């Protein structure tokens, strides 16, 4: 194997340097001037110590032990990751996300209900004051819809909460006389 590598190396050297003569010899003639310039010229992992002497290239085949380097050593895992722990982590993430959606929803609803109560207790309330409350209702509806879309709230629960806000607004309008319900006709 080493001689094949040596021959292929010599052939490639002859193409680069036509005056070089490659021959395999076991004895080395080392001159101080040539060794200082070229100490070793290694063509492969099995060939070393090349020295120019008398215009010819001499090589010595040296057997090196096979080195196997380990790039990354991984410890084998015999146990699969715990799926219950992963489920717990996922559930905790969802709980926090859903909690924020529900908190926003409750805050918006409370603002609407409090402002409707203030308007209901006010003696000289004007019909234009309901417009600011309708903006708050629109924001609450948006929060409810987002919570339903995210899965934090069931769609029926969302519909019930929207209905509660609309009924409370309608009650205040009827009480103040700003809205008269259509009379139901019984036949």
UniProtKB/TrEMBL annotation:
Keywords, ordered alphabetically = Chloroplast, Coiled coil, Plastid, Ribonucleoprotein, Ribosomal protein, RNA-binding, rRNA-binding, Transit peptide
- Record keyword GTP-binding present: no
Q: Where is the signal peptide?
A: none
Q: What is its main location?
A: plastid
- Compartments (UniProt record): Plastid, Chloroplast
Q: Give the coiled coil ranges.
A: 102-129
Superkingdom of source: Eukaryota
Look up the record and give one Gene Ontology term from the biological process aspect: translation
Pfam families tied to this protein: Ribosomal_S20p (PF01649)
List the Gene3D superfamilies.
Ribosomal protein S20 (1.20.58.110)
Single GO cellular component term: small ribosomal subunit
Q: Which GO terms describe its molecular function?
A: small ribosomal subunit rRNA binding; structural constituent of ribosome
The family note in this entry says:
Belongs to the bacterial ribosomal protein bS20 family.
Q: What is this protein called?
A: Small ribosomal subunit protein bS20c
């Amino acid at each position: 194997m080493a001689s094949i590598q040596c021959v292929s190396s010599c052939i490639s050297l002859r193409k680069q340097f036509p005056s070089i003569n490659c021959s395999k010899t076991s004895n080395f003639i080392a001159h101080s001037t040539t060794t200082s310039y070229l100490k070793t010229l290694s063509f492969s992992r099995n060939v070393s110590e090349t020295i120019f002497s008398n215009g010819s290239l001499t090589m010595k085949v040296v057997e090196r032990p096979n080195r196997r380097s380990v790039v990354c050593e991984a410890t084998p895992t015999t146990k699969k990751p715990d799926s219950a722990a992963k489920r717990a982590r996922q559930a905790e993430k969802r709980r926090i996300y859903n909690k924020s959606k529900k908190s926003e929803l409750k805050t918006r609803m409370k603002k609407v209900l409090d402002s409707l109560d203030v308007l209901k207790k006010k003696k000289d309330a004007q019909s234009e004051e309901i417009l600011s409350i309708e903006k708050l209702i629109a924001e609450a509806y948006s929060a409810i819809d987002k919570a339903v879309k995210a899965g934090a709230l069931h769609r029926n629960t969302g519909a019930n909460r929207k209905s509660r806000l609309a009924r409370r607004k309608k009650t205040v309008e009827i009480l103040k006389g700003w809205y008269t319900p259509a009379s139901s006709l019984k036949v």
